Amino acid sequence: MSRLAVALLAVALPLIAVAAPENYTIDPTHTYPHWEANHFGVSNWRGRFDKSAGKFTLDRAAKTASVEITVQTTSVSSGDSDKGSRPRSLDEHLRTPDFFNVAEYPTMTYKSTGVKFNGDDPGTIAGNLTLLGVTKPMVLRVENWKCQPHPFNKKEMCGGNASGSFKRSDFGMKFALPAVGDEIKLWIQIEAYKN
Amino acid sequence: MNDLLNHPAVQGGLAPFVAALIVALVLGRARLAGLALVAAFCTTVYLVGGFAFEPLSATRKIVLLALAAPVIGILVDFAFKPTRLGSAILALAAGAASLWVFWPILQQKDLRIALSMGGGSALFVAWLVGFSQDFLSRHPIRAGAAGLGLGIGVGISAVLGASALYGMYGISLAAAAGAFLLPQVLGGRKYEAGATFMLPLALTGGLLAAATLILAQLPWYSLPALALIPLAARLPAPEKSALWIQAVTVSACTLAVAAAAIALTWQSGSRLPA
């Protein structure tokens, strides 16, 4: 009997090790949420948030995962940061209560509530976006997901591209509607190292 | 029609002016022409983003106080005799209201900055409310001229301080003051200003300027410049001449001070680091 138990344990141990959830910490120097908003129905403005942090857990055997990302809205960047002779730049305007109200709400967070796998990789993330003190559901689609050792430092890493969209009016960001579009598209390039 | 209502000049200027003019004309005889102020402000709030109070951000607290101020103003005008003590109590309450509005933001800041910003803003708002109530509320032409100067000063300074939203809210106060003055100068008959007009004007204008300082990029020294506007409305004016001459004279004084405050803000903007 005891031999059978030892034998079963010996067979099961590697499976338990594979099934263990793996924790990853997002690399803030390789993870940038980008945004896009229409301007006057003419062109699409694009910019990004320069500072973000977060973590995710991945269990490829059980096909479960969770993710949490915190974005510093203070770091919103449109490319127009130099006001020159103007009274303000676009970045300064984006930080005011007209848009991101960064003094009052310095962060935007995304927390997953469920992840659907596409094969062995995360495919669709359901979660909640919290912006300006309002929490609403938002779905992120994941593409190009890959886990591998870093080519140079050999640390285990995962990464991919996630995209989604939300209506800014749902979060109370109603200034300049509809001249500045309601729909905000998000693309997040993610790279993370295994803890 | 939607295109028209979505235009910032209509949202912040024309629509609030029309709303305020209607209220002033309809309620003038009932000593409630001062409600023109809140009518104008509410019109702009509604057109820009609508009314919402959840979550209760600083901007939404300002809107809430702007709605409460005329109710308190009517109570003050109809239930109490105007006294210096009453003005002092209103000033203290306004200063406390300022701290309530900005407390969650001040808590996130360094103690020294929080004390200077919070204390300075509370003093600024208390001064505007106290002085305006004590020295301007019984003089409708001077009250209207103060509104014109304060609205323009706060509104344009807010735009230069990076918030067009607060800019439109500020300009709506000026539009209301213009609509409050117009029937008086054209009809040659004074309306009652009282706390019904003066309290929402000074409280909302003060809080908007303070919000632009704390949440956007208004330099601190724009506040003392804006604080001089009610003083300018007290400068000697030809009291016995026609109302339109009085209105033009006092408005010229308040607008000159507003222009100086705007120039200060403009100058600071060009020096701010990118």
- What is the string of SSEs of chain A from the N terminus onward? HEEEEEEHEEEEE
**What would you give as the CATH superfamily of chain A?**
Lipid/polyisoprenoid-binding, YceI-like
Q: Compute the gyration radius of chain A: what is it?
A: 21 Å
The tally of strands of chain B reads: 0
Helix fraction bin of chain B = over 70%
C-alpha geometry of chain A: elongated
Instruction: Give the percentage of residues in beta strands of chain A.
Output: over 45%
Task: Look at the structure and give the mean pLDDT of chain A.
Answer: 90
Description:
The complex is a heterodimer of chains A (195) and B (274). Chain A is 12% helix and 52% strand. Chain A has 195 residues and is mainly β. Chain A has one domain (21-194): Beta Barrel (Lipocalin). In chain A, strands 1-4-5-7-8-9-10-11 form an 8-stranded antiparallel beta barrel. Chain A is elongated and about 80 Å long. Chain B has helices at residues 2-5, 8-27, 36-48, 58-79, 84-106, 111-136, 140-160, 164-187, 194-215, 222-232, 243-271. Chain B has 274 residues and is mostly helical. The N and C termini of chain B lie far apart (39 Å). Chain B is globular and about 55 Å long. Classes of the chains: A mainly beta (195), B mainly alpha (274). At the A-B interface, helix 2 of A face helix 8, helix 9 and helix 11 of B.
Summarize the structure in short.
The complex is a heterodimer of chains A (195) and B (274). Chain A is mainly β and 195 residues long.
